[in-house]
Specification:
Rossmann fold, seven-stranded mixed beta sheet, six-stranded mixed beta sheet, 15% strand
């Protein structure tokens, strides 16, 4: 029996995004006013056209000429001017957005992991019934079951997934490492590269289905040569199974949340354990990954999705708004951020956001994200825009500016960069080529996108000849004794004895 008592409001559901359950340490970016956009904008039949015109007619009002700017409050993004008293606090809060409140759910996650470790398949099934309201017929699917399910996906869907997978595969083939060997002073040195033997990839399945995440995690593993790739996802659909088959997945575990991570890390009666777990998930998934790290490797602790758009007067505000919404619709805690040199652009984007929310299927989610996590920062020039973007270190960075490559030279921290007006961030989510599994919460300062390098192990190779050891022996012994490690020195000296 699983002894786990979790209140309904904090019960680990199979898959919410991490941020949706990690509000504790995420400060809101300013307070929101209740003002609505003027009727002349909201009632217009051609909001985008009128917004674009207002920008081009208002270039002379650019913030370059402003002496003192107030903090504008609109119905969507809060606009922070350079001299706004709350600006620095807002930036500092955003800079700490990666501080997920995992401690809040850790006791529940520890019980889930302990239950899976002790009870195996039965525990995973019982947890699925408790948290998802279902009891899977079987939690493990082999290649035949994957093929049967994948065959139920529409032919057009399979073609689209194959086209995306082909592009992802071609990109990641450029990341392959082959190791090296060389000789110096009679010492043979090198690095051996081999794939990890078994990898688990996690694909969320609560608020939305992500066959693209299956491709973006499993294809790089396949390119790396991983001989066993296991997908964990709750209630796998034909589309997900088609993506799994195309991406070279060998097994599927029908489980979500922390229990899926436990099954991958510890193994069950039907699921052999893996050596590394990758992929995004909710706060319970993130906490479980952190707790099993050491027994297995993990890629990262993923947070809510985020996009920073840097726009100048050449950008189309309707396009900028569309890019912001493309991430806001992911999750209520997603971060849609804008940096611009133009006050007119900021106001126009806000109006375009209101217009485009109308009729959006995930409007409720996107609107909360915009109001509670969205922000716009006005800057005086391109150099300040680059500095601010680098400070925020976004997951997705869209440069909707003239001379985008030039601006990028001043920005060091970003997960994926989308250059120029014709490059939608959504292309990176699906079929551009690079993996869309990216560092979040400012982690792009030190972390990289998921890639082939995440699925390999590097081993250093060293071989001394007798002559080489004799030539370097005195140095080795002196350095060992410098650190007070006599046994180290003797391990060298004993080999230098006359045969």
């Amino acid at each position: 029996m699983i002894l786990l008592d979790v209140a309904d409001e904090t019960s680990p559901r199979a898959d919410d995004s991490l941020g949706a359950r990690s509000r504790g340490k995420h400060s809101r970016v300013g307070r929101r006013g209740s003002d609505s956009v003027s009727a002349s904008v909201s009632d217009s039949d051609s909001v985008s056209d009128s917004v674009s015109a207002s920008v081009s007619d208002s270039v002379s009002d650019s913030l370059h000429a402003a002496k003192s700017w107030p903090c504008y409050l609109c119905s969507m993004l809060t606009i922070h001017a350079p001299e706004d008293a709350s600006r620095e606090a807002a930036l500092e809060s955003l800079s700490r957005r990666g501080e997920a409140d995992l401690a809040r759910v850790e006791p529940a996650v520890r019980e889930i992991l302990a239950a899976v470790r002790a009870g195996g398949d039965a525990a995973v099934s019982e947890l699925a019934e408790r948290f998802e309201g279902r009891r899977p017929e079987r939690i493990w699917l082999g290649s035949e079951r994957i093929a049967e399910g994948a065959a139920l996906a529409p032919a057009e869907v399979r073609r689209d997934l194959q086209a995306a997978a082909d592009r992802i595969r071609r990109y990641h083939e450029h990341q392959r490492e082959v190791g090296f060997r060389y000789e110096e002073d009679g010492i043979a040195l090198g690095m051996r590269v081999r794939p990890i033997r078994a990898v688990g990839v996690y694909a969320p399945g609560g608020k939305a289905r992500y066959p693209s995440t299956v491709l973006m995690t499993a294809v790089p593993a396949q390119v790396a040569g991983v001989p066993r790739v296991v997908l964990a996802t709750p209630r796998p659909t034909p589309e997900l199974l088609a993506a799994a088959q195309i991406a070279g997945v060998h097994e599927v575990v029908d489980a979500g949340g922390a229990q899926a991570i436990g099954a991958l890390a510890y193994g069950t009666q039907s699921v052999a354990r893996v050596e590394k777990i990758v992929g995004p998930g909710n706060i319970y998934v993130a906490c479980a990954k952190r707790l099993v790290f050491g027994l297995v490797d993990i890629d990262s602790i993923a947070g809510p999705s985020e996009i920073l758009v840097v726009a100048d007067e050449s950008a189309d505000p309707a396009v900028v708004a569309a890019d912001l919404l493309s991430q806001a619709e992911h999750d209520e805690d997603a971060y849609p951020l804008l940096v611009t040199t133009s006050a007119a652009m900021a106001e126009a984007v806000n109006a375009a956001l209101v217009a485009q929310l109308e009729g959006l299927p995930r409007r409720a989610v996107a609107e909360i994200s915009l109001r509670e996590r969205g922000a716009c920062f006005l800057v005086r020039d391109r150099a300040e825009a680059a500095r601010l973007a680098d400070r925020l270190a976004p997951e997705h960075l869209a440069l909707a500016v003239e001379r985008a490559e030039e601006l990028l030279e001043g920005i060091g921290a970003a997960g994926a960069v989308f250059l120029g007006h014709q490059t939608p961030e959504a292309a990176g989510d699906y079929a551009a080529g690079p993996s869309h599994v990216l560092p979040t919460g400012g982690a792009t300062r030190y972390a990289s996108p998921l890639g082939v390098y995440d699925f390999i192990v590097r081993t250093s190779l060293v071989r001394y000849s007798r002559e080489a050891l004799e030539a370097q022996g005195d140095l080795l012994e002196r350095l060992a004794r410098l650190e007070g490690l006599e046994a180290h020195a003797r391990a060298v000296a004993i080999r230098r004895r006359e045969p």
